[in-house]
Amino acid sequence: MSSVGAQPSSASDVTWRSDAQSGLLIFAHFAFSYVPVYLAAATGPGLHWIALWLWFGLCQNGVINLMHECAHGLAFKRAGLNDLLGNWLLAPLVLTNFGEYRKRHWDHHRYLGSLRDPKLVYRTDVRGTRVLLLALRCAVGLEALRRLTERPPQAAEDEVKEKGAGLSLRLVLVQAGFCASIFAVAWAAHGALGAALVAAVGAYVAIYGYGTASLTVLAAALRALAEHQIGERAPLVEGDAALRNFHCNAFTRLVFGAYGFGEHAAHHKQSNVPYYQLPALVSELAAQDPRFAPTGGYIGTMVRLITMEPRSTTARSDPSVAERPADR
To answer: Which of 273, 222, 218 is nearest to 246 (CA)?
Structure first.
């Protein structure tokens, strides 16, 4: 493994902000991300649900980013709070198992760019019209199904064969409480039982369920492609994976780069640094090695990956550009 890669490490040398401050910021972000579901329940079906679907589906990716921060034990200084938030709220709301997610993510760090890397989506060919196929697969739920069942080509025999939430008591309790809260809002807004049921079920299925399975999966896929697919402007490469740091504006930070994902190469370099310290780490690393300087933004990087020439032509025309991984 190259020096870019990271291993689980102690966070004892990290300067932490207070858990109270972290908790308030996390609550504000979580509330902003989930308010579209409750607005849909309160207002009932209508064309405005399209905007609420977009709002929730895109922001839900930031909630997954928060689960990643908890998996690293970095959302809070106290480890128990990270496990509590990851196990009892975030993972059940994105229909996964927190312990399994954490193991797979550390395998991603250990085996980045190799055939044992459990993150496969960044190898997807999205050049030209192929990106439309990715969007279509997300729209009909096929990409969500693939993400639940994918397995690295060279997974060890003792590794979990499939991803999945598992029907745990924790998941049932969290989902039941979530459904009850949606219905309570709908009941308070509509009064009549029938109207409340229609609004609550619709908000749960169309905004939360379909938003997660379609837009959130698409946003997560595009984020992973920008961060790790080899192509234009990928000065840091490990195996078949690129590593990039990004310039983020308010929108791309909220949707793609929340909780340090915008400083992705720095995170892989030093995985024990909380997200709020990563911008300073990027500056420090870039001063020592220009390859850590941000190479552009998420959207610009995605556009370059979608529009770039076939790898053989690109490689011949510009030897500094690393070769893409083989298409899946």
So the answer is: 222
Record the tokens describing residue 191, joined without a space.
């009064």
Q: pTM, whole model, 2 decimals?
A: 0.87
- Residue 234 near residue 244 (C-beta atoms within 8 A): yes
Beta partners for residue 241, in sequence order: 238
3-state secondary structure of 199: helix
CA angle 273–275–281, rounded 5-degree value: 60
Token digits of residue 171: 């998941």
Beta-ladder partners of 237: 242
Q: State the Cα–Cα distance between residues 264 and 146, nearest whole angstrom.
A: 24
pLDDT in tens, the chain (328 residues): 444 444 434 444 578 999 999 999 999 999 999 999 999 999 999 999 999 999 999 999 999 999 999 999 999 999 999 999 999 999 999 999 999 999 999 999 999 999 999 999 999 999 999 999 999 999 999 999 988 877 777 665 555 444 555 568 999 999 999 999 999 999 999 999 999 999 999 999 999 999 999 999 999 999 999 999 997 667 899 999 999 999 999 999 999 999 999 999 999 999 999 999 999 999 999 999 999 999 899 999 999 999 987 554 333 333 333 343 333 3
Measured N-to-C along each axis, helices 48-71 and 217-228 cross at an angle, to the nearest 10 degrees, of 50
What is the spatial distance between Cα 160 and Cα 172, in angstroms, rounded to a whole number? 22
Rounded Cα–Cα distance for residues 192 and 18 (Å): 45
| CA-to-CA separations, 63 to 212, 215, 286, in angstroms, rounded | 11, 13, 28
Nearest to 294 by CA among 274, 266, 320: 266
Domain locations along the chain:
19-244+301-317
- Give CA–CA dist 167/189, Å, rounded: 32
Q: What is the residue whose two structure tokens read 């200084």?
A: 77
